[in-house]
Fold this protein.
Amino acid sequence: MENQIDNFVKNAYISAFDTDSDIIKMLMLVNTKCLIDDFKQRYLFVDNNRLRDELRYYKFYGAEYNGENLLNIFLPVILGNNAGEKCDKELVELVKKYVMYFKIENKYSEYLIATLIYSELIHSLLKNPSIEYDEIMDMIKERVISLNIDMEKSNVVKFQMYRIGLIKTIDEYKDGKRNSSSDICSGLLDAIFDIYVEDRDEKYDIDSIKKVLFSLLGQKISTEIENIDFVDSMAEYTVKLKKYKINKKEYHAKANPLEIISLNEGDSIQDPILNKLTVKSKIINGNLLKINVQAKSGEYCFRFAKKS
């Protein structure tokens, strides 16, 4: 049974990379690298110092956010942890950080509830892949009703109003009626509906989520994912984290991506964030300096704008 769960975790992780969204792939790797396996307390937590520097780097190489569904960036925390309050706490804090980072605080309630629902669903499928659609809807509804989260007063009213509307929406989905909303929770409910009731083959940001859920139901995953060998190794790494076999140490360095500017083409260094990296090219185009570097995790194109 343990090996089967390991395989499901690994396949779900890999399936999330079967997407055209660079932002999902990049931030899944970022979040995976920030996980610390705490054997004594039996959970994984996010190293916030590491995340701080990872996002400093991401600012210069990362894909631009264009409103896509970011739910799968939280997958490493979900898959690496077991269900429970400690996992929920890490997800709540991570959601808060990312909605602030991308300046989408207006979607805080959506992402918070959707992430906790997603976690509940994934852990339920890992325990019982044969769970039926009505059971899933009842489980999600109960989860939404029972949510008790400390938050700033300014968010409480919006959260409660969103939750009330979502409970009604869940009842509609259970009755076979889809909601026309395009918010994050409705996207997750759409993915579940497509898998268990009627697949309409509509993508709009949920295709990657559907692939993750299908993998948990035993569907074969794609082998044509970009940089598949590295993604596979990170999936294995996540399984080892889940078993507390890594004993990852907390990050105490301070990395500055601007130091990459001083490197020349062909230079190789040991970087606190990307580990060994080599500068492949360095091009100035107007006020923009582009530096392509090769690391084990892939190729990164850093973009530095000259201050006027």
User: Anything to note?
Assistant: Residues 153-174 form the longest helix (22 residues). The chain has a mean pLDDT of 93.
